[in-house]
User: Fold this.
Amino acid sequence: MSELKMTGKQLLGLGYPQGPVIRVAIDVIAEHYPAATPEEAEAVLSSVLKDPVAYQHDPVLGAIAAHLMVEEKPEVIALRDTPVDYAIFGAEFIEEGTIKQLNNAIRLPVAVAGALMPDAHQGYGLPIGGVLATDNAVIPYGVGVDIGCRMCLSILDLPEASLETQASNYQKALKNKTKFGAGAEWKRNDADPVLERSEFREIPVLRNLLDKAAGQLGTSGSGNHFVEWGIVTILDANNEWNLAPGNYVGLLSHSGSRGMGAQVAGHYTRLAKELCVLPKEAQHLAYLDMNTEAGQEYWLAMNLAGDYASACHHLIHQRMIAEMGATLLARVENHHNFAWKEIHHGKELIVHRKGATPAGKGMLGIIPGSMTAPGFIVRGKGEESSLHSASHGAGRQMSRTKAIASITAEEMRKMLQDNGVTLIGGGLDEAPGAYKDINTVMSAQSDLVETVGRFQPKMVRMADGGPAED
DNA sequence: ATGTTC
Assistant:
């Protein structure tokens, strides 16, 4: 795409006021004046600024004019005085600030129920590991920035011993068939039905994101995202796939909706904060009414981002499995940053899980440990007090900054060696010691999920920070 | 989490 992209600075230079009009003007120019020169765009924007009333009925520029004419801010929506009671799992691991965040969220006028998972920690708006059910309203920051961030596990017919005897082939697949780093794209990529979805044409904010989405399909991004080979141990003889208990080679991935989802999240978070002004301590919990155009649009865009994240995992797995000449025996996958329409207490609610695994009765999911600690294949017990949810991992016990400052490269190398794990990329901020003990976290949620099997990582690839790698 | 954004 070569559409004209104005910057906030340029607009302020023209005399535009601080505020939402900046974003609106950038969007309008990108969408409706793609072929204009910067000078032409500035001339148009200056005319609107000079006399917004003259443009208020203009089908394109009217949106900018409306923002220039608006002066009064919407009224601040008060939080309820009396919070709804909610369950906390593993309260002994959860910091006071995290609980305060859910205490605020549960006082939203649209909040119906909530829960905190044992890996919970502070986030923007809703805490990570937080679950919140609302009545007919969706909170963009209740889903999170990485919409549809999810896990995918493939169980393969390869012999366990091949992880050692064929180690170089497994490593080659990780190096050649995955791509990590912020902004990383495949130069030549496969087609996928998700890229044909009509939402890319029908929803304005998605129109400019199709090219990026096409390039980033099947990439993993950065942060805590990974692709890894390891050993799946099936423990439950009554498993859904009739797999014999024992060991299998598995492929596990963790990633989300990449730049496309991040842009969707950013757009609707800004919009929600304009339309729904809350007291300062709850400002990031701004919600969209599901009966409004904005709410409906977010719902469609969020679902598309979720399907896109799923397609990314499937492409990664398809390429890795083909590279190893393997056959897929079973697959488990689940979003852990998303919102769903679910019935609880006889009423349809919008259930936000921000870093929480869906755990309805009989639902399968994956809860990862760390690059050396096992992950768990789980089956939900449908516990109502957790709103059918469980943790989405072990949870950090150290911030990234603290991990980098307090864990040495030698300690991390030894930890990997002791556990027989090979790491490609990765940094000290993702060291095993930066995470809580997954076994402790699992025992804090034994009422929420049962264990079907385990996954022991053996060969891990992560982003190594800095610019995109090849 | 994201090429680090009004």
